Amino acid sequence: MKNLYELDHVVFNYDGNILLDDINIKIDKSSIVGIVGPNGSGKTTLLKLLSFLNFPHYGRFYYDGTELMKNNINQFRKSIGYVQQDPYLFRGTVYKNIEIGLKLNHINQKIREKKVSKILSLLNIEHLSTRLAHLLSGGETKKVAIGQAMILEPDVLIMDEPFSSLDKDSIYELEELITLLRAELNKTIIFTTHDQIQAQKLTDHIYTIVRGKLFPTHLINLFSGKFDKFNKVFDTGKQLIRIDNDLDNLELIAIDPRQIVLSLQELDSSMQNSFLGKITGIIEDSSNIKLNIDIGEKIQAIITRKAFSDLKLSLSMNVWVSFKSSSIMIF
After folding, report:
1. pLDDT tens string 293-304
2. pTM of the predicted model as reported, rounded to 2 decimal places
3. Among the CATH numbers 3.40.50.2300, 3.60.70.12, 3.30.950.10, 2.40.50.100, which is that of 252-330?
4. What CATH fold (topology level) applies to the domain 3-215?
């Protein structure tokens, strides 16, 4: 595959603060890329850079083999469809909202009708065509916003937290749509999410961004929270995790999924952390098994096929999740 994007040591500042620091990333054409990170980590700032809404202060930025400069960046914006986290729809019907981009580009009516009909069909929202925009559900609003972006036939669809505030049915429909857009239209799709497990399911590659720094691999089991230094407990808001550390400003941790030990009974060991959870997902790869487990927080463990077989694990089964403090990365 050919690189569509290449960012080389890119830095972006705002009001003297570094929001993106030494970003290095390559994104292939027709790939699905997820960007994971906590609130305020720089996810939206990075999306705006990839959408050509911002220009880096330092570093080199290439799109489809061409280096971006301030005098040529505008010409690339038409290649991008950008959907905000809380998309704004205009007054009027769904049809009018999707059509508006074509009207602004002075496309004649017959072509507009054909293109809008195609988008409504692709998104499976023909039945919403005459519905007023302010009467739509959250999932329907996201689909219409995607329709607004796709009607102009961009090469890249960029979405900021597209799954936030959606119910389970709407999340499933949007996941199916993302897969369809890549498979049927060969689009490059980039989105941010807080849900690490969901990102793994949908994407070809995941990047993690923490405090403006981009990690070229996925930091699985990344949690934000508050650290009680006196009791050495990290509170994620849903679970308490013991950490042997004396840092004052500890706000983020990541647990190595390969150092998580699973057992059918609670272990009598030196491991400081042990939680009873339920298996919610099982993913097989070439040599290992990835298990998604709900311990109050969603966590993923990676074990060998032999361990999986020996424990006779299955979906919805209860299992003990244990790990040492030494298996925790801190930020």
Report:
1. 999 999 999 999
2. 0.79
3. 2.40.50.100
4. Rossmann fold (3.40.50)
